[in-house]
Amino acid sequence: MIASVTAASQGKSVVLLHPGLFIGGMTSSGLGLTDFGNTHVIGGRSRQFYRDVGKHYRRDEEWLFEPHGASKVFDQYLQLSGVQLELRQFVGRAVVEHRRLREIVMLSGLRVRAKCFIDATYEGDLMALSGVTYTVGREPNSAYGETIMACRCATNISSVLTSILMSNRENRHPACFRSSTNQTPRPKAQAITAFRVEKQMLCYWLDRRLARNDKIS
């Protein structure tokens, strides 16, 4: 959605094809607890979105929001940009001429011919139908010399870290949810923040150890 608005702001004629009933993906479907870490490294249209969501809640910016708040912002973006939105559209066929994608035909019968196509879906069906080469999963570090790239393990690290952090309990409260053993539990917002910070620190430590092929005991 942001790609279409950006293209329109540069004077391009844009058609946005979406299989659902409303736009926004996970952001407008309930994933409103932003997993950000350091907000200072977030800029561009992403940062502007959080500022515009903040206006909905009468704040400078907002990182925790409801689906309808995100949808309202996205709808405003489309209205101001002039992007043509077509909902409930599923790609059926790709027309490739001289190794270039020229046209796509939707299952509804809609045909779209353009100079440039962006496949911003989760599945990447348009890329596959167009014959674009792709890799399932991640390439090894040796492919592009990315020695500190994110690591992919057989075990879901996020789940493991959550289990580690939640395992140290006292009175059914995770340890990270309490200021100390002699104090009352932290407020919910502070507890969630503390949990996320500790989890991110562990993620960083694991990534560094795995990048060096260290054994983790």
Which features would summarize this protein structure in a list?
single chain; 217 residues; alpha+beta; FAD/NAD(P)-binding domain; 2 domains; three-stranded antiparallel β-sheet; two-stranded parallel sheet; 37% helix; globular
- What fraction strand? 5-15%
Spatial shape = globular
User: Total strand count, please?
Assistant: 7
Strand line-up of the largest beta sheet? 3-4-5
Query: N-to-C SSE series?
Result: HEHHEEEEHHHEEH
Number of self-contained structural domains: 2
In the CATH hierarchy, what is the architecture of the largest domain at level 2? 3-Layer(bba) Sandwich
Helical amount among residues, as a percent range?
25-40%
Indicate the CATH topology of the largest domain.
Answer: FAD/NAD(P)-binding domain
Oligomeric state of the chains present here: single chain
Regions with pLDDT < 50 over 5+ consecutive residues?
168-183
